[in-house]
Structure formats: structure tokens, C-alpha cells
Amino acid sequence: MTNRSLLKQQKRAKEHQQRRAKQAACDKERLTSAAINELVRHCKKKSQNEYALLALLVLISGRTVSKLFSVKPILIDDNVAQLPIRWNKAQVPESFLPETEYIKTSNQEFTLVPQKLASNLSKLQQETDAKACDRQLKAFLTKVRTSTKEHITPITLAKTLGFQKYQFNISVFEWSFLCDEPKNLLGQNSYVAFSAEKLFQKHIKFMAQFIDTAPLERYLTQLKHDVWFGSPRVLTTESVVNTFSHIVNNLNQAISQRTNYERVHNWFTVYTVQLMQLATLHRPISNVFRTLDQFNLRNNNVEIMDKGEESRRLVPLCKVATEALCNYLAYLEKLKDVARFEARNFTSEIDKSLEGKACLFRAWSHSGLTDDYRSLRGLGISDLFTKSNWHRHFISTALVSKDYDRYLINTFSGHRLDSQTAYGKSKSFTYDDLLKVSTAIESIITKLDLARAPSVDEYLFGAAL
After folding, report:
1. Given a cut of 70, is residue 422 above it in pLDDT?
2. Does residue 186 sit in the same domain as residue 244?
3. How far apart are the first and last CA of the chain?
4. Which of 65, 97, 146, 463 has the highest Cβ tally under 10 A?
């Protein structure tokens, strides 16, 4: 690089630094604690001023004036009110099996705020519109002179919760919920059912810096412990256990009938795929896990691509998944040995699966092996096992309840957020981080103590093809 070009580069860097410094001076987003505390004291002194009360509500809710005007506060009692969340909830799916039910999530999601602040918002909503109210709030805040000489605006006030969230163990996803951010921005909450009580406890600790939260804390003690927000598609723990019992019961019945291989094969395939989907968070697709070439049994991992090229990822196989896969491969080898004298064409189809030239998991109909796994839908197998995404909802919820990083869960499951960038947090995760998630999932599955598939060896060598 010549001296001339070096000087030009240094000049551009200096100009860029000056522009950034000037921008930071006129558009500072993060308020200091001193400025916020002085504003809070000012608002409490002016407690009869409707815009002083609105400023406090913007601060503790993390919502802008336009967002606050988009909902109607619900007054619970003389001290507590609810601010609704505008997310469209997914429909509760039908129960595919009589033995299964879903965690009941609230039809109306909300956050808690003091009744006085909510009543003031309702009054302002009747008197003016969001834009006019925002202008009035700006005018009120402009008159507040802090010792730090910071310029306080409704926007910088609303961003306080976002800047302080980690101090109170509030995740980005919980913050997006509290602030009523668009669901598709950080929509992992739509996969997870989470405890309302735990979220309120964190939010109340944040609010306690600025207002008296005793009424909210008292209300929280009366709130039912089973109030859940988020995904309505999370099976209860008992239902997951019942689901595998249902599969194993059908497999046992098929083995005991000793009539043909089709039913045994299909139910054993269902058992293996469901267990592996639970362990890897694979989405339900027709060619689930694709071919055997995607698996690396030496390193115990699998390449998954279940929603286009951008979902391609390398996922560790925990011991539960590895054993299930090895048992299935051993089953196919034995099935091939049995079939080679009676059905040569059938043997060649099994070879295609074992050589990675066809889908590994395939249904069996009257005419032989089909092209993929989802063909089971036409063979009397419930959609729960071919179409439902219940594995991802259940495991994601279990991991979040154990405080696993949701960005890490997203990376493991191939869930891409609208807000995700090339420089996002998920880009810094390593394969070792994914191994930790896989180990946690294995622990969850082990504790479920799921029904185990019986050995099909005796059946294979005792029934006619």
C-alpha cells in the first residue's frame, strides 16, 4: 500500500469516527441510571399530570406510545391491570390420540402493570390519538432537566427495558413478548410454552427500581401456578409417555398376530423416527432424515435439511438416537436376509435404502416399500406421527424451562428468525455448544422412561413374507 493510499484510508477512518461521534451525541439511545431516576422522581412529584403517569408506563412496560394505544388495558382490581399482547395465537390442534392432551395456554396473553397507570392510559385513549399523545409526552419530557443533561424521549424511555433486561435474567425472547414486538421478529416464543408466573417475577423486579410493586407481588401470589403463555401445541409429559406406549402397543399387537411384515415394519419405523425426531428436533417432512449418507456413525451426527437449503445443519446424535438408528439398520439387514429367497425385488429395495440410494425410512404398502416415510398417512397411521411438529414444541419448551439459551436452541433446531443477521449471536456457537444441547435432550428423554420397542428378531425368522 502506497503512502498516498494509506493517508486517504486514515482520513476516511477519521471522518467516519467524527460522524459516529456526532451521531452519538445527538441520538443517544441509552439513558443513564441517574437520568432515569431523576425523571422518575419528577414524575412522582407530578403524579396528577397524565403525561407524568404515561412516562412511567412507557418506562416500565418497554412499549412505545403507539403500541400502548394499540391495546385496551384490562383493570383487574383497584391495584392491578393487564396490558394485552397482540400476538395471534396458533390454534390448538385436535388431539390425534385419546391418550394425549396439550399444555393449556392462556387464550389472552398479557403483562401486569399498576392499575393507576393503566387507568390513565384508558383516559388518554378516550381523549386523544396516539400521534397527538406522543407529541404531548415529548413536550413533557423536554421540560425535564436532569443533572446529566440527557435528552429524554419516549423512544429512549421505552428502550430502557431492552438495555437492562439481562440484569434481571430476562431473555431477548421474553423482552420481545413484554414489549409486544411483532411475533415474526423473535418468534421462538411461538414454539415454546412458558410460565407466566416466572416471567412476571422477572418483570416485577425490573419495575421495582422505579415504582411500588407490592400490589403486583400480592396479585402474583394469587395467580394460578398453571398459567402458561406461548405455544398451544406442547404435549404434556404424560402425553409424550402415552404416545410411545401407543406405538409400542401397536407394534406388539402386530408381532403377536404373525400375519405379515407390513404392520410390524410400519410401526417399528414410526417408533424409530419419532424417537430420533425427539432427539434431533427434525421437522416432519416426507423424506425425514433423507438417506443413510446423511449419517456419520463414526462421529455420531447427522446432516439435517428439513426446510430448504438455509435449514441445513449438522446435529449431534445422542446415545438414544444412535441406538435407535443402529437397531433399525440391523432390522433392515435381517429383513433383507429373510426376503432374499422369497422376494428378490423387495431385497433390492432394501439395498437401495442401506446403500443411500433411497430414503432410509420408508413405509410398506401392499405393493412393497414406498418412496418415503409420509406414505404411512394412507396406511392407517395417525397424522401425529407423520405431520405434527410436536417434538420441536415439547423439547424446546423443556430446554427453555431449564434456562438453555434460546439462540442455541434455534441453531440446533434450524429455526431462523426474521431478525437474524450474518453477525448474530448464533454465528458464534460451536459444535461443542450443540453437543451440550444434545446431552440435555438425552437427559430429558431418559427421564421420560419411554416404552421401549420389543425385539423383532423372533418375528422376522418365524413368519412368512
Report:
1. no
2. no
3. 76
4. 65
Same domain, yes or no, for 224 and 250?
A: no
Q: Quote the CA–CA distance of 149 and 167 in Å, as a whole number.
A: 25
Please list the alpha-helical segments (H only) found in 259-303. Answer: 261-280
Q: How far is CA 103 from each of CA 193, 199, 229, 388, 434, rounded to the nearest angstrom?
A: 8, 17, 10, 16, 27
**Whether residue 51 is found in the same domain as residue 67:** yes
* Domain shared by 226 and 242, yes or no: no
The alpha helices in 179-229, defined as continuous H runs, are 196-207, 214-222
Residue 66 region, left (φ>0) first, then alpha (ψ -120 to 50), else beta?
alpha
The 10s digit of each residue's pLDDT in 198-245 is: 999 999 999 999 999 999 999 999 887 788 998 899 999 999 999 999
For residue range 118-170, list pLDDT tens digits in order. Answer: 999 999 999 999 999 999 999 999 999 899 999 999 999 999 999 999 999 99
pLDDT tens digit sequence for 158-167: 999 999 999 9
Pairing status of strand 74-75 against strand 80-84? antiparallel
- Are the C-beta atoms of 294 and 280 separated by less than 8 Å? no
Q: In what order do the strands lie in the sheet with 110-114?
A: 74-75, 80-84, 110-114
Query: Same domain, yes or no, for 255 and 382?
Result: yes
Rounded (10°) angle between helices 431-448 and 237-257 = 70
Q: CA torsion sign, 185 to 188 to 189 to 194?
A: negative
CA distances to 4, 99, 305, 382 from 12, rounded to whole Å, are 13, 68, 44, 64
Distance CA 415, CA 407 (A): 9
Which of 210, 230, 250 is the last residue in one of the domains?
230
The answer to whether position 438 is within a domain reads: no
pTM (2 d.p.):
0.85
Q: How far apart are CA 338 and CA 133, in angstroms?
A: 79
Half-sphere exposure of 332 (CA within 13 A, CB side): 27
- Domain, as residue range, for 52: 30-99+108-230
190 and 44 both lie in a single domain: yes
Are 253 and 180 in the same domain?
no
The string of DSSP codes covering 439-457 is HHHHHHHHHHTPPPPPP-H
Max intra-chain CA distance, the chain:
92
Same domain, 277 and 387: yes
